[in-house]
Amino acid sequence: MKKEDKSAIIKQLETTLGEYAHFYLTDIAGLNAAQTSELRKVCYKQDVKLVVVKNTLLKKALENLTADFSELDGSLKGETSLMLSNTGNVPAKIIKDFGKASKTKKPVLKAAYVEESFYIGENQLEALINVKTKNELIGEIIGLLQSPAKNVVSALQSGGSTIHGVLKTLSER
Known about the structure:
Layout lengths: L2 H17 L2 E6 L5 H13 L3 E5 L1 H10 L15 E6 L4 H12 L6 E7 L2 E4 L4 H5 L4 H39 L1
Antiparallel strand pairs: 1-3, 1-4, 2-3, 4-5
Helix pairs in contact: 1-3
């Protein structure tokens, strides 16, 4: 491969990585063409981009980005596929579900960069599935903050109708 081609691929990888908030490094070696095509379809339906990359080119693209991705260097061995998504836990769910369905137990998680944190190793898959997005966490906090206020309003409203009912009963007697 020519040096110009390599630099073009590195620039394309930098652009692609910049478009997505989260990415996973996976190993899909051992999947045949039909299984790989099926995995691509599943990813496409879930808004996840699946790209097969060369480790050296991906490493150079990561080095050119503003953040420090040196923690992922140890995971850039063997065959590597990149799963890119704007929702942090969707690729983890795809890896788990597709791995159960395929006989080869692939794809295998190598590492991930989700919600500005690094997850290294296959044993991090369950943690990644349970990661909540910032919007989900904000929604939960708002719900928790509104709960006491709703209880007070509800008690006041029910108390008013209860007092009204008692007064009405007394006036009828």
